[in-house]
Amino acid sequence: MKKRLNIILAFAALIILLSAQVYVISELYKLRNRVFIQDYGAEILDAVNVLEDNTGNNPLHNVYIELNRLASDILFDIPDYELQSDSVKTDVIKEFSDLLNENEQVTESLKLYLNERNLDSEIKTFFYIHNLKLLNFNREYPIFSDTDDNNLFTQNPVKKNAIFLGRYIPTYDYFRMEVSYYVDFNNRKKIVIAEMSSVLIILTITLCAVLFVYLRTLRNMLKQRKLSELKSDFISNMTHELKTPLSTIAVASASLALDKIASDRKKSKELSEIINRQNKLLNQMIDQVLDISSLEKSGFTLSKEKVEVKPFMREIIEAFRINQSKNEITIIEEFDIEEGFVAEFDTYQFTRVFNNLFSNAVKYCDQKPEIRSGISLKPGFIIFWVKDNGIGISKDDAKQVFSKFYRGNLDLNKKVKGLGLGLYFVQRIVQAHGGIVKLESTPGKGSTFTIELPLNK
Ligand code: ATP
Ligand code: MG
């Protein structure tokens, strides 16, 4: 429960961190954008000033003359009363706006100026008319005012990031208007982002690092949780397993103390054998647990020797048969190598490997166990395999059976004793020899464990 809370907290922290990053980036973008507008704005205002100085008068003078001609034509063509109508007014302001925006020559000059200074010259300009009146001698005809609420004509909206260059109030014979001039850089976004690139790269790297650490921590946490669950299972299994032989010993030794039994040679011999056997079992179990801690500390120390493989395998099988004499088991040998074939491995450890595999084949079987033990060769390798007709292993379990303390999730497992260490040792021992263990299994049909051991020439 607490762990889940931790995971949720960690996740929330990650989300907060991510949002913080996004926030920082967007703020930085806004800031950079403002700086861009300031810097480029200053440049372009300089340009406008230079232009005004050079021409000696207003650089827009030519287009104003054309507008004046347009105004006089309109006044000449259109009767007074029609100039009051909304539709005519709308046409007039549209014509003014279009003529102004299409024929002004300032933009070209600005581009030249920017080019000379190696600044980005892809600009878009826009004249916005705030109000317009036509004049005829002493008469005024109001055409447009952006403070009027009921304007039918709306000009292209001025872009949010456009740079304001100035407001002019030209008054000529036939018109007076108030107009603002804006310029926008087509590549503004690109330039701003390029200027942010170093920061973006650093932020991305930091983010990746944080994500990496986060995922690793999460994985470790889950692993730890799994391990601690397995450990507590192991401890309860272990105590359970220790208890059985201990109570047998307790009963047997108490019986030995009875006069009636002490006098019966045969009975007391039987009892002492039981005690002996249980003692041996206890020892084996304790050894296994000790092994695992020493294995963890220092790894295996192998004492390899050259062994004739067939007789070695036969001996293990024979010993196993004798051990399992209570159970009705069949072990079929399928040895596909020459009689005197020699390989090099640690016989003590390999005996453990096969005992583990054989005992699993018997333990996890719900019918008469039939085990096939095979040996064969492939270039550079000797292959051992143990095939059973047991209950099989599911895909999920197959991924984990080699882990320390892992016991399958089966009902049968509750009845069958085990510490979940057998296959872990099998794998560690084979790996220490430079080999690999493979598992193939079909639930309900049986399993095959294959050991591939490199042959040292
Ligand atoms: P230990 O061997 O330490 O006494 P164990 O037999 O439970 O205990 P492993 O030998 O490591 O531990 O096996 C792990 C699990 O893999 C078993 O609990 C069982 O669920 C499953 N398993 C192993 N061998 C077989 C098999 N031949 N058929 C079906 N399931 C198997
Ligand atoms: Mg086992």
Q: What is this entry, summarized?
A:
Helices cover 57% and strands 18% of the residues. It has 457 residues and is α+β, with helices and mostly antiparallel strands. The protein is rod-shaped and about 150 Å long.
Structural notes for this entry:
- The chain is α+β, with helices and mostly antiparallel strands.
- The protein has three domains: 194 residues, no CATH class; 100 residues, Signal transduction histidine kinase, dimerisation/phosphotransfer (DHp) domain (Helix Hairpins); 150 residues, 2-Layer Sandwich (Heat Shock Protein 90), CATH 3.30.565.10.
- Helix content is 57%, strand content 18%.
- Strands 6-8-9-11-10 form a five-stranded mixed β-sheet. A four-stranded antiparallel β-sheet has the order 2-1-4-3.
- Helix 8 packs across helix 9.
- It starts with a helix and ends with a strand.
- The model has no long low-confidence stretch (mean pLDDT 88).
- The site of adenosine-5'-triphosphate has 24 residues, from helix 9 and helix 12.
Instruction: Domain count, please report it.
Output: 3
Q: Describe the biggest sheet? A: 5 strands, mixed
What is the average of the pLDDT values?
Answer: 88
N-to-C span: 56 Å
State the main characteristics.
alpha+beta; binds adenosine-5'-triphosphate; binds magnesium ion; Helix Hairpins; rod-shaped; Heat Shock Protein 90; 57% helix; single chain; four-stranded antiparallel sheet; 457 residues
